[in-house]
Amino acid sequence: KEEPCLICHQSRLNPDVQHYFINIAGKNYGLPEIMSMTVEEALPLFRSKLTNVRDSHEKRIYADIHEKLQM
Q1: Which CA distances in Å does 19 have to 40, 49, 56, 66, 69?
Q2: How far apart are CA 15 and CA 1, in angstroms?
Q3: Element containing residue 66 per DSSP (H, E)
Q4: Is the entire prediction scored with pTM above 0.70?
Q5: Which residues of 24-44 are buried (b: 16+ CB within 10 A; e: fewer)?
């Protein structure tokens, strides 16, 4: 029987980014939470985030995520 990983809690994310949060529409989403979302759940969140970002680097990141979710 496989035991769940006590470090990543089955998220398969590096422990350094486990506690990184993205604020979308006033709610903080952790990376493990975002990674477990379906495309249908994530796409509207990133579409919303993309329209509210002012920083050009951050906007490029969200635009890339949004584009990949639409594929």
Answers
A1: 24, 19, 24, 22, 23
A2: 24
A3: helix 56-70
A4: no
A5: beeeebbbbebeeeeeeebee
Structure tokens at 26: 């006033």
End-to-end CA distance of the chain: 36
Going by the DSSP 8-state scheme, the letter that residue 18 receives in this structure is T
Q: Which run of H or E residues covers position 33?
A: helix 31-35
Distances (CA, A) of 49 to 2, 9, 12: 37, 27, 25
Q: How many helices (H) and strands (E) does the chain have?
A: 3, 2
Residue owning tokens 């990141």: 61
Model confidence over 23-45: pLDDT tens digits? 887 888 888 888 888 989 988 88
